[in-house]
Amino acid sequence: MIVRVQRYPVAPPSFASFLDFERDADDLFGDFLGAQALPVRRQYPALDVAGYENESVVVAEIPGVRKEDVKISVQDGMLTISGERKEPAAPEESTWLRNEIRTGEFSRTMELPHEVDVNAIEAEITNGVLRIVLPKAAEARSREIPVK
Amino acid sequence: MARNTDVAVIQRSNTLPMARPGAHDNFIVPPADVHETAGAVIVMLDMPGVSKDSINVTMEKGTLTVRASVEPYHRPNATMLFHELRNRGYYRVFNIGTGVDRTNVAAQFEFGVLTIKLFKTDELKSREIKIH
Known about the structure:
The complex is a heterodimer.
Chain A: H1 20-33, E1 47-51, E2 55-61, E3 70-75, E4 78-85, E5 95-99, E6 104-111, E7 122-126, E8 129-135
Antiparallel strand pairs in A: 1-2, 2-8, 3-4, 4-6, 7-8
Chain B: H1 2-14, E1 27-28, E2 32-36, E3 40-46, E4 55-60, E5 63-69, E6 79-83, E7 89-95, E8 100-110, E9 113-120
Parallel strand pairs in B: 1-7
Antiparallel strand pairs in B: 2-3, 3-9, 4-5, 5-7, 8-9
């Protein structure tokens, strides 16, 4: 029995093939790029904590999140970053071709790296990156001990 | 699908810009949302940490390439206490089919999200056919 395989479906012009090349390129290059090319993150948002002499700086990537949708709290030596990434308003009568960007609520808690002067904590968001400056409390700062 | 188009893909990749980052460059393929409206295709890419000036969007031979570098998040004298963010840039390529106006591409960067709008040419816009 001969089975005819229709490889190219007859369909009106569409953008469904828009991303074919990219997907194929991922097939080709995905292996040797390995996990590096796949943004696999266990917890959101991903964080960096950098230590300096008198402060620590927490950096978190939260693209698409507005300033008013982020909440930062410190309690019992723990820092919590929580918030919500709202769904961007989709244009009217649009069709989704790809949806990889996650939206919704998030929360992440970390232990403070040292005693922090809570009243002097500062935070800002620039280009989707949240930066929280945690000044060391006086007792956490290094000081020289004079020898008597 | 992949098997059928491998040859085409290899030929196409030879035409990609030479500045394609290597595996050692720690670039990230930014996650994307793509949606199609009656008159345009809109691509949104998560690219936190880049400044508007460092984003490079090129349209060449039906290939839309997005490339951007990320400035270091920390001062050189930092001691890393916790380190998850290792990207130094973003790179992603889209194949654009026919029916898109390749000379008219609009891009906007806000809250770390790049939005690219590709306008359809008249021939691809859906229209009602009147029956005489």
